[in-house]
Structures
1.
Amino acid sequence: MSWLVTGGAGYIGAHVVRAMAAGGERVVVYDDLSTGSAERVPAAVPLVVGSVLDGSLLERTIRDHAVTGVVHIAAKKQVGESVERPLHYYRENVTGLQTLLEAMTVGGVDSLVFSSSAAVYGMLDVDLVTEDSPCVPMSPYGETKLVGEWLIKAAVRAHGLRAASLRYFNVAGAAAPELADTGVFNLVPMVFERLEASGAPRIFGDDYATPDGTCVRDYIHVQDIASAHVAAALRLRDAPEGTSLTLNIGRGEGSSVREMVDRILKVTGNEHLTPEVADRRPGDPARVVAAADRIHEELGWTARHGLDDMIESAWQGWRHRHPEA
């Protein structure tokens, strides 16, 4: 098959592209480079620069590169920004997906792997979040991902697509320093930024109903995210028409924010620092941990990387971009 990877020049997308290419799949990257970088795309992989709102370019790319499957990663993904700019998020994430599905239909492409998010669940008071847990997203970003899943399911029913929606949790780490996350929106890079500024890391709230009072999350290495996308793509290749999968990508293990911060301080040689405790952030649930049974049953996939691997590889990437750190 020949796979079009939208957002393939971004942090997660670049890892998916390399994993698919390493597995012998033919890949073409489609990215508007608004947050991605052309330098992340391997020299042997074609790069088409364009928006997912450009239906004509999508149709031409599918035709010119004989695309038979799509991995759709391109999206706007910052929760806070989505609250401030909901119309922008719905246009990019929902209308963009609609435009892509229309181009796939025109081009006869019938396989789609969709990057969804645990943000579709919202704030659930459960030990493990299963794929059957209620979806009550708390931000426009989470809403657009859930609407995207609904849209895909409708297209599966109407057009016989084969589709897999992958809901992933807290992503960290890097396969190589040059592929590391350049954003500072998640816990690990946020701690790195504080360390670079010679400040103590900050913990938002230590009075939650958890063992150490801080929020508990399921952290997943970006290489495991990439391997799950590859496994889903391979599954769809041999699946019957109308196949529709919705799967969590997680380790099924919870780690508290304090535990993660302590590990980061140890890996970076800053064990002498004491984290500062700030007020809770609005909307932060106490615990969000994936149930990872279904993806193992459906795809034979299991996460392979642990917390220290995530932190160490992310730190190498940070130092690659900030050699003074």
Note: The two ends are 43 Å apart (CA to CA).
2.
Amino acid sequence: MVISDDLGNAKAVQAVPAADRAVDFLSAGGDLALTVAPNLIPAMSEAVQARAAQDPAFKSQVDQSVRRVLTAKQQAGLLTCG
């Protein structure tokens, strides 16, 4: 599993919109995009969802990442349902 550092406050790429950073990170093979800036989450999430709706390969990649993250949580005893 590949987890980002804070994509919202990344100074080295501050010229790139946070939404694009999230999509780029996942496109590059990342599994879990993080930010400490809650106000950026809607834009990041919407950008990922929009890209997934337009690009079946990206959607498949995101789906695989979701499964990887949930499987890791389950194996660590952190996933509860109900």
Note: The mean pLDDT is 94.
3.
Amino acid sequence: MIRISSQQIFSGGINRLQDLSAQLNKTDEQIATGKRVNRPSDDPVAAARILKLNQEVKRIETYERNAQLANNRLGQEESAVSSSLDILQRVRELTVQAGNGSLSANDRLSISSEMKERLEQLAQMANTQDASGEYIFSGFQGGTPAFANEGDGWAYQGDEGQRMLEIDDGVTVAISDNGKGIFERIPAAVSGARTTAATGSEGRINSISVINRSELQTGGLPSFKLLASGVPADTLTVRGIDNAVQETVTFTPGEPVTINGVQLTLTEPADGDEFTIETGEKQSVFKTIENLISGLDNLSKSGDAGSDAYNDLIAGSLANLDNAQESFILKQTELGGRMNSVESTQAFLEDSALYSKEIRSQLQDIDYAEAISTLSFQSFVLQAAQQSFARVSQLSLFDRL
């Protein structure tokens, strides 16, 4: 015969009530928090996976912030380059107008005045600042204006650094470009000048331009020399800067001749005249506009409209402006490619975050309908257990005597 003491009855009943109450409290907490797993002991395996998923979501959110920052910076840079391109287009239009030999001195001064305004606007674009006040074209020297006017023209003040930002594991994107590469290192128009003159010679270069850039690049000559010979001069010996003979070309004075992709016209050359052709120089877009302004101002004072020097200035400036526009367009294309890459990464990160959160939700979140039903059942069981314990706890042997 098994004997059960009153103490055992009370202890067992209390333990049962405590277990039922704990289960009820756990379900109530799950409903309040909306989470099935609130502590590792609720489901150790699920808790471990949830922890890893939380870390993954935080990692993705960090990269999403980086990607948004990169997109903003690149968008701002693209806008500045686009505005600069519009300014250059207007300067080019003004340069074409300035080439009209029928303009008066006042007309040329008016064109020069607007060019000065456009130059200031271009400098403002080159000194664009981001939301934090850093100059986006200064390389790593974000606190320093990219360009400053030191009295003799606009000059670059930053360094050649390029900022990179990681927008996903193993994926980095350049979020800046230094102004030196955009505004200064622009291929200059080919130029030429007589560097050695024969006695009594009036030889000069009347016009010069690149008509075949691929041939010029194939030749690999940053500059070359032309030595006129013959009486009258009708032969040009082409030499490199090292004076090594490249070829010999016949020409007719006053008519165009093409050498290494460069077309030029020599007027009144004499036997022994030497000309140097520069093809590989770089020139700041600011310098191009500054030279234009200086030429227009000086012309207005001297009145040498239609002079060879003035015509060469206009022709060379147009070529330099075209080179600058081409350089800006290439940079726009490059920026567009980077922005597309960032947008693709953003889309991938968004999908990854959505997937990770969905898996985490399946592991962590509760089914409210099921939880509420469970809570009702647990409440009923606890209430029944409490009533049963209350009755059992009142039983005594003396009640049966």
Note: The chain has a mean pLDDT of 84.
